[in-house]
Amino acid sequence: MALTTLDPNTALIVVDLQKGIVGSPFIHPLGEVVERTRALLAAFRERQLPVVLVNVAGRAPGRTERPPQQTGPYPEGWTDVLPELDQQPSDIPVTKRTWGAFARTGLEDRLKALGVTQVVVAGVATGTGVEATARQAYEQGFNVTLAVDAMTDARAIAHDYSIANVFPRLGETGTTREIIGLLETRSA
Questions:
Q1: DSSP string, 95-129
Q2: Rg over CA atoms, the chain
Q3: How far, in Å, CA of 132 to CA of 101, rounded?
Q4: 10-15, strands of its sheet edge to edge
Q5: pTM here?
């Protein structure tokens, strides 16, 4: 589904752009993802729309076939949001311990208390943190938009599958430029 509109009270959710993850081997240059995310952040902040900066500091407790990549405590600064995102006092920080930003974080209640009806999701990784956050937002009744050029994954197959097959079932997809264009049109 092509991007059609943004609700008057739309929030931006930036997933896992944090120091401990930036060294991962992503399929798209992370610098480009960060720059596009910065453009989204500027557009949302300029319009005083809610901005949520999510970091991950753990994992779900369930048993899996793959061992955890991180065992023991995280290194100093691992969970810190990238300084390029210029975290502001008005931003909503969320620390998650699962793939999605809504599970056991109180994010749904915080956004609904602000009257948010739609979310734009960007960040890493497309097939895990971004997709799980989008799924949870959709399940909680938010309209969902995915900034497909402001996300990446370490696995091309996961990135491409999410964009082509999952995201169109959860909401609308668009580029950073298209999303900002809708914000500008609405503000004019």
A1: EESSSSSSTTTSHHHHHHHTT--EEEEEEE-IIII
A2: 15
A3: 8
A4: 92-96, 51-56, 10-15, 118-124, 143-152, 172-174
A5: 0.94
Q: From the centroid of its chain, how far is CA 45?
A: 16
pLDDT digits (tens, 9 = 90+) for 105-163: 999 999 999 999 999 999 999 999 999 999 999 999 999 999 999 999 999 999 999 99
CB atoms within 10 A of CB 57: 13
* Bridge partners, residue 81, by sequence: 18
Domains of the chain, with CATH numbers? 10-59+78-187 (3.40.50.850)
Give the whole-angstrom CA distance, residue 100 versus residue 15.
9
Distances (CA, A) of 156 to 20, 52, 122, 125, 150: 21, 26, 17, 11, 15
Phi, psi (degrees; rounded to nearest 5) at 93: -85, 140
Which sign does the torsion angle of CA 168, 174, 176, 179 carry? negative
Burial of 61 per CB tally in 10 Å (0-12, 13-18, 19+) = exposed
